[in-house]
Amino acid sequence: MSRNDLNFEIVQTKVASAPSFKINGITVHSVYDPVSEGRKLAAQIMDRINSEGIPDKIIVFGLGAGYHIEALADLLKKDESKIKIEVVEPSEESFGFIKSNFNVSELPKTVKLTVLDYGCENVYADASAILQKLELDKGNILFCELPSYKKIFPEAYGLAYKLYGINQFFTPSSFKVLVVQPMYGGSSTIGNYLHSALLGLGYDAKILDFSKFYDAYKYMGEFTPNEDHVNSLKQSLFNLMSEALLSSVFNEPPDLVIFMAQSPASERTLLKLKSMGIKTAYWFVEDFRTLTYWNTIAKNVDYFFTIQKDDFFEELKNIGADNYHYLPLACLPDFHKKITEINEEDKIKYGSDVSFAGAGYYNRKNVFAQLIDFKFKIWGSDWYVGLPLSLLIQEDGKRFTEEEAVKIYNYSKININLHSSMWHWDINPNGDFLNPRVYEILACGGFQLVDRRRYLEGVFEDGKDLVVFETVDDLRKKIKYYLANEEERFAIAAHGRETAVKNHTYESRVREMMNIILLSSYEQIKSKLETRKENISGLLKETEGNKELHDLIMQFSDKKSLSIRDMVERIKSGKGRLSKSEAMILMLWAVKSKLVKLEGL
User: Fold this and answer.
1) pTM of the model
2) What sign has the CA pseudo-torsion 198, 199, 205, 210?
């Protein structure tokens, strides 16, 4: 996306050989002496280096005519500095004008030029692109700007500066996240993957698993045949889980609670978390047309993430929600991976010419009944069917584990992925979202035949990453073709795996989610985390007279921040008798926990 609302005008200055120019009526450089102005700006940057420390890289927002960049490069060269300079021009349009009118090609070779193609239609897509291009999350960076560019490109500057700021004050290990699971269902599995990705990225992440309540939930019908009474009992159980959630956060409040679909997120619970200053997110990994409880959730959470957009976004807009974001599903490469050491017993058990792993929805039963002449294995529950389709159901329709799914995807020659529907006879011609199986089969290196979905376009390429079928006849033809063409099948599966692992992991989804949360709540989260930090060097000076406490704090001298919780965890992990200082810290932590609980009542 490029900006098309820029007007340019060359401006002559007092120095004939150094013109300036205007963008949208704002003068970029001094009309008196832009070269001297550039030297002053470069000197100010050097002063910051002297006071703030030597960075790995200096990012300068705004190329302009390059006077300040040349001056900065000269100063660094005189100091024999190895600091890299990266100058950012926020618009391809402005860069085109500059390139045509100024000798920017003569910039020192030590300067890297990055041109952004910034638009304002999707700020979070722009954020991801800027973060990736400038590598703001890598190394120690000093962020500077050509002052005029803050006025000319306020949105792009604000976004780049926030991204820089986030990566200066924010470290995942200092951010506490709680993932709240439902009692049962596919979103519980996705929640486990999300939690694993959070841990992999270094977040202080915990998971609250309500699966142990599922037996009680199923047992409700044993008490009474009255459906209203059963529903009332189930609602009471839901309320109990909500209270259990609140109890768990009172002792150690997280910074963010992520609810998975169908987890206990009552309005009271969400309002209580908000009153505690805890951000809430909900990942609705369901079809919004099938499960409609989203309309009671979306407006009460800070962030509502969905696997559908378009029609769903219109529905959310109609109920007054403005906090929704598209976040598709993904794979977990450490788990969904290609099996390199073949196990012959597993290959015999889980392998087949054709396979399907999933629940027995109405449309799937109708389609698969037309595939019984293939060597076809069907795995999963809810397959209440008669002969001859029942002969294909494995292990009497028992639920398969995620570990077993990986084996099925690996050992099957062709994995069919037919998205579920309770209303279509066979294939939904208007299907949109992609189910978890799309990503998981690919990450396992499995070959996949999938029904056409709107969101496949631009994400996976038909015939290169996977193969799309339109009708049952088309599906049958493609099964026969790819069983007979093994090398082509292998090549597609290999490319699909590469695409999935590169672009569609749960870690990448976490980055995108946190990008949205940190940018939209920048000031709040920054203030919260900064007030939590303590200057360790200052603490060391203050505790010089208390050897026990001083020695304990010294254990954290390599960290940027320190909290009482950090110290408590270190003390609990230690061995031997507690010192007086350690006992005092544990007592303070216990008192703090009690106070938090009292405040929440």
Assistant:
1) 0.84
2) positive
